[in-house]
Specification:
- About 35% of the residues lie in helices and about 20% in strands.
- The protein is of the alpha/beta class and about 280 residues long.
- α3 links the parallel β2 and β3.
- It contains 11 helices and 9 strands.
- It folds into 2 domains: about 10-205, Vaccinia Virus protein VP39 (Rossmann fold, 3-Layer(aba) Sandwich); about 215-275, rRNA adenine dimethylase, C-terminal domain (Helicase, Ruva Protein, domain 3), CATH 1.10.8.
- The N and C termini lie far apart (about 55 Å).
- The strands form 2 sheets. A 7-stranded mixed sheet has the order 4-3-2-5-6-9-7, with helices on both faces. It has a two-stranded antiparallel sheet with strand order 1-8.
Amino acid sequence: MSNPDLPPLREVIAAHGLIATKALGQNFLFDEQLLARIAAVPGKLAGQDVLEVGPGPGGLTRALLRAGANVTAIEMDRRCLPALAELAEAFPGQLRVIEGDALKIVPEELFDGPYAIVANLPYNVGTALFTGWLSGEQWPPRWSSLTLMFQQEVAIRIVGTPADPGTYGRLAVLSQWRATPRIAMKVHRSAFTPPPKVMSAIIHVVPGEAPEGVSARTLARLTEAAFGQRRKMLRQSLKGLPGALAALERVGIASERRAETVSVEEFVAVAREMSRKV
């Protein structure tokens, strides 16, 4: 494992004339100790394949490379490619850079075996990427863990429970029904350049056992309908979803309840009933 002497990130950014672009949801992290802590969250990465989305000038990338990971980085900002090319030269054989939109790339096509995903996700596409990685009927997924930077309010929603209806919603159900998310660490807004208006947090997710007899697509449709009108009773929000109200009755959930009071396990039970071949 190589550990070359690299110039400070601020010098790299200055040398390449890089400025964080709001349109791409960019905020750069310069604190290399903090970046090393983030790279340590998923555990030992030496020799492991890692997917990174939105590496920018490569701050987190260099931390992952120093940890011994084999990194595939997807970057759509061409301005950052020369800085990433320099990193690839400094860590021979460890870094592959793909220019493109991560929303249009299938990670499974990039790796032969399991891989971890570690990324300081661009704020404007973070949730869409996250829910995409959690979706699909095939489980367990090829990814071994997700270590992702989110706005803190989004991170809180991912780990939310009915005990706090202000943060519990569809994102929590989709995150928790067959995986275990936790907030690994919080990151102050002052750590970024430019500082965002909100605080951030690192979410770590590991896949778990998928409940038997439950279609991921059915659960997605159920939660979309239930939380799409979260202030209404379930009998109203679910009336347009075929089989949902009958499934509620079969599992003993009162239709007068609202979505934010229904636990992950209860949503799974309803989705299982809806998924049954009648």
